[in-house]
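Possible regression after last week's pipeline update?

I re-ran a chain I had predicted before the update to compare outputs. Posting the input and the new output here so someone can diff against the archived version. Not blocking, just want to make sure nothing changed silently.
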Amino acid sequence: MSKVAVVFWSGTGNTAAMASAVEAGAKDKGAEVSVFGPDEFSPDKVAGFDGIAFGCPAMGSEVLEESSFEPMFAAVEGALSGKKIALFGSYGWGDGQWMRDWEDRCNAAGASLVCDSVIVNSAPGEDSLEECKSLGAALA
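New output (post-update):
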């Protein structure tokens, strides 16, 4: 059985809804899933998981949430080489540049993005939640 971590931050509940769908998709494939907020996840936890889904909405000028998610991600970035990961998040403006920048960081760190990232404008609908379930299944 694979072990999957879902690590996310949500301000309005949109990314939390996506995280629940990611968790469900991984569990449906038989994975053991642990869910963390950014303050609960650290570099020493990375090795304990076969795959990690990171979720964060776009904030400010299309950046990761700056007070807790960005510091956590910067800390774990160096431990992601060779790790299977997937990214998801919502946005309310812009064109998704924050996700492209985030994917570039992950690739530069040597992480293995197992599927296309899931980005949703505003609240996730049924189709978007199905994409999130598929993302979780891909990590499992």
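Follow-up from reviewer: compared with the archived run. The beta strands are 3-8, 32-36, 51-55, 84-91, 112-113, 118-121. Marking as no regression found.
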